[in-house]
Amino acid sequence: MSTHIKILKQVLQKYSSPMTLNYPSGVDKNRMYSQIPEGLRGFIERDEEKCIGCRACYMVCSGRATKIFDTAEKRTVQVFHFRCTYCAHCEECCPEEAIKMSKKFELAVTDKNDPKAYVNTDLKMLSCKACNRPYLPEKMQKRVFERLSEKIDAKVKGIVVEDYHKTEGFCPDCKRARGVMLDTHTKKHVWLEVV
Amino acid sequence: MADLAFTIVSIALIIPISLFLGVIYAFLLRKLNARFQWRVGPVVRMYSDLAPVIGSTRVWQPMYDILKLFGKDTLIPASAHKRLFTWSPYFSLFFSFAAVLFIPFPGMPLLSDTPYSLIVASYLLIASILFTILGPVASGSPWGAIGARREVELFLVAELGFVASLFLVAFMKGSLVIAELSGTVGSIPMVLVTLLAGITMFAAMLGKLHIKPFDMPEAECEIVAGPYTEYSGKLLGTYFLAKIFVLYSMVALFIAVFLPPVSSSVLWLPLYVVAALALVFLLAVVQVLNPRYAIRKALAWYMKIVVPLVIIGFIAAFALRMVA
Amino acid sequence: MGLIDRARIYSPWVYHFHCGGCNGCDIETLAALAPRFDAERFGIQLVASPRHADILITTGCVPKQFIPMIKRVYNQTPDPKVVVAIGGCACGGSLFYDEDPENYAILGSPDLLIPVDVYVPGCAPKPEQIINGIVQGILKLNEKATRGKK
Questions:
Q1: Which pTM does this prediction carry?
Q2: B33 in helix, strand or coil?
Q3: Which chains does B contact via 3+ CB–CB distances below 8 A?
């Protein structure tokens, strides 16, 4: 009987002020709901200006939700929300910090092909001047060159930049094939010293 | 003739009144259960930005459940005995509604002044529960069989307390007609014995209405919905409707027999409503404080608590009959 | 709208059907029915038998031994009914589903066997997301029922 009295006291404690959140009601117009915790990992948002198409997020994705589709003109990086596990590995590994996990979490779709469940980013793809095969997105090439020129030693910077401009526009196989012809092969400094 | 006409009119009136009150009692049981668990139950006043889409109040929630069930398909399993399976819910509803007609409401004695109405009312309630045992047995499912078996055992002991408390009061006041029992109050010792019988009846009501310590026949998820496992659509809706009438009749019978003057004339109507709501509140409190008992423990509880109360009550009633 | 159509929106009954998986989505689904995010405010009730249900909630990616069970439970639910797939695994298989080569044990999402009406992605989805998905399921249920009548 005494346990019943104890339970009754606890039960009547919050009789008139229940602890329920009134969820579907009271949500802001842009669906911001006040109970969101600080570090919530919601849906993925990719900044189209910053993404360079380096495929790091594709390599690291846990649920195999990120897919890369290459055509002759463009590279599409697609995140399919149904397979995403919201682990934020792609946010951590993106070199340009283009991916952010937003705080939105409301997405219930009735159709698997609904465009709301996909995040697509298109990037222009470059084709090789010699063999016409698509090899790299344009932004990636530019960005890699920018990063390289920040960190390179001042002594060899001139030669590296000159060689880069000579081979710009060739895919890696064609670049290797034309190394001697364009005088950009890596052992040219060794030859000069010996000779 | 006027008497007959009045009875027919009051029988026609009791249909919506008993449905209305039964739905309110069922809603209150759910709402109080929720409030005691620190949550909001079915809302009484819906949030204003959702009200146009999903209605402005959920006070009629038990009725919406039943109406929705009437709109669904009815699937009959292949291993069921078809006639008993499909007819049991309708018999259960018929008997529980017939029991409503023999219990007085303030201002409308209905059929409660026929001779032996106490026996008729209690037998009609027993018959209604009988068909919640036969139907599931006919469904051919093992879960239905377990639920029906538990229902039979619980029913036997709860019936003991139910019948004993009713006949205690009948023996003491010397009458088997509900109208006379609810009309006379009697002396102070009679009121005390009526109170004792009322406590016994409350304990028996817990078993008959499947309130928390004794809801093991319909143990949800333990035996996959128990007796109602194979029922769907309009048959299940009929069972729920019969349950609402049984809830109303048990509360009304309690007030008629154990709170004597309240059911007799229309002036007592406010007190009738207050007494009914207080009874439902007590049932909800018991429901929230107790776990679900196993069937053996329930039988032992009834034997230990209800039987001594009944014996003491009968000795007291016999003494009172000898003295008066 | 008729009385029974209104009753269908006001009282949807939910059957929680666990088809394999890590139980994360199951815990979040039961949290959606617990005091903090009470779904019973809107009449949503958890029922114990698929024959009583309007909305079938499936969680988890389906192992191949489950295939006959899923079909059986789906057939035992009376019309009109709606299937809501909760969690990344139930929507598309997530981590556990390979396309090439095919996994020896896991089939993937239940929508290869039964028609799924609402997908709720997340790993595990928040209880608020689950309530949002159930509400969409209720609207789809009403649409199915009234379309069938016409």
A1: 0.88
A2: helix
A3: A, C
